[in-house]
Amino acid sequence: MTAFDQFVEKVVLHNKIATTELLQKAKDYQTSHPELELADLLIRAGVLKAEQVVAIRRKFAATNTAPITVPVPPPAAVEVPVSEPTAVAVEPERPLSAQNSSDPTSFTTLEDYLSYARKFGASDLHINAGSPPLVRKDGQLQVLDRPPFTAQEAESLLFSVLDGQQRETLRTQFALDTCCDVPGLGRYRSCFACQSRGWDGSFRIVDQQVPSFEQLNLPDNLKSLTEYHQGLVLVAGPSGCGKTTTMAAMIQLINQNREEHIITMEDPIEYVFFPEKSHISQRQVGAHTESFSAALRAALREDPDVIMIGELRDRETATLAISAAETGHLVFASLHTTGAAQTVSRILDFFPADQQGQVRSMISESIRGIICQRLIPQAEGQGRVLALEVMFNNTAIGNLIREDRMFQLPTMMQINRDKGMCQLEDSLQQLVQEGAIEGTEAWFEAANKSPFKQYQPEMMEGGE
């Protein structure tokens, strides 16, 4: 542990914010993740808040030899003895650079923009040479009011959050995918790339804590997919629809309720899990392993119970995932597909025609469920709501997959609505009836547009 970690431990224990047992779990987890500070882990465990860590960090930087009073709201400041001299009061919290400002023209660091994007409720931030900064909120891009970045400004901002090795990689390969962990501001899934006008950076805001099923408005019947001890669960949908967040919520549910060995392999790591009942190992492609397939091969020798794969990208990864599901592991994975039938077909497309029959048979037995999701703007214009297509495996579904009759899966899902299955169009219709989304949005999102013909935009009449 670093001196700052020890300081944080003293503050937390003195203020009785966490038990010794919980702190020991955090320290044990930190042993296998030395890149994380104890304060980061306590934030993700819900023990500390980001503003509390900022206050503690300031006082540690000022002195670590005298008793101090550290504000830990709520309650108000509490005196924390570290040694013998008199207590020192913590100064009122001041803005770091321009992070507390809502005027983008006053921002001077990338942290300012990241802080603003998180407070604004955006999902993404874009810093591009030759254009002003943009944020994506509720699925729509919005331009921030400031002049376009010069190439030098964009490079200075983007490279400021990278370490030496990352900068070298970016300059050599002209692209870099990583997850930036900014002290006091949280984690951001980040993509850096070179373009004709300079450097671009895209930052996906990641929640500090893993959201629950209730927070995501996921139906309770999906919890049954976390209760299996072997099988394959697929989460599908277009980019930016929350697939990673849904899988994280399912992994967290297992972590809270079962004593299992969980291994995740991601590109990059987004949500950092704090072990509760389960033991969790997280590996990042590029940093801890060469590829998903390499990580999956290694994982099968590490005695896992549950495996999470960030994305099924190629035949080898798909083969290993299906094999793992067949040999007694519960496997979660994501794909970029639009429906349950298309998801099965996409996996089959990884394989040559002469192998697809065998793969269909394996999938028909190992698949436990497929969740396809979309995030759709709310009717009031504030936020987005979740639309789902859900398929659970049963004898009839398995037979259709085995016999290559994927075109009949939607009909079978309709027949099994009382068992929790749901087509995307049914979910969209329900949201329209509840007034949660506009009918036009449902028309655009639906694969089968017939139920939403009345909402077809006038300018598009005569064609879909």
Task: Explain the overall architecture.
The chain has helices at 3-14, 20-32, 38-44, 50-62, 110-120, 151-159, 164-173, 213-216, 243-257, 292-299, 315-326, 340-349, 353-366, 395-402, 409-415, 424-433, 439-445; strands at residues 68-70, 78-80, 88-89, 124-128, 134-137, 140-143, 175-182, 186-195, 198-206, 231-236, 261-266, 279-284, 306-309, 330-335, 367-377, 384-392. With 464 residues, the protein is of the alpha/beta class. The chain has three domains: 3-89, no CATH class; 106-206, 2-Layer Sandwich (Beta-Lactamase), CATH 3.30.450.90; 213-422, Rossmann fold. Strands 12-11-13-14-10-15-16 form a seven-stranded mixed beta sheet, sandwiched between helices. A six-stranded antiparallel beta sheet has the order 6-5-4-9-8-7. The N and C termini lie far apart (61 Å).
Topology overview:
Layout: H1 3-14, H2 20-32, H3 38-44, H4 50-62, E1 68-70, E2 78-80, E3 88-89, H5 110-120, E4 124-128, E5 134-137, E6 140-143, H6 151-159, H7 164-173, E7 175-182, E8 186-195, E9 198-206, H8 213-216, E10 231-236, H9 243-257, E11 261-266, E12 279-284, H10 292-299, E13 306-309, H11 315-326, E14 330-335, H12 340-349, H13 353-366, E15 367-377, E16 384-392, H14 395-402, H15 409-415, H16 424-433, H17 439-445
Parallel strand pairs: 1-3, 10-14, 10-15, 11-12, 11-13, 13-14
Antiparallel strand pairs: 1-2, 4-5, 4-9, 5-6, 7-8, 8-9, 15-16
Helix pairs in contact: 1-4, 10-11, 11-13, 13-14
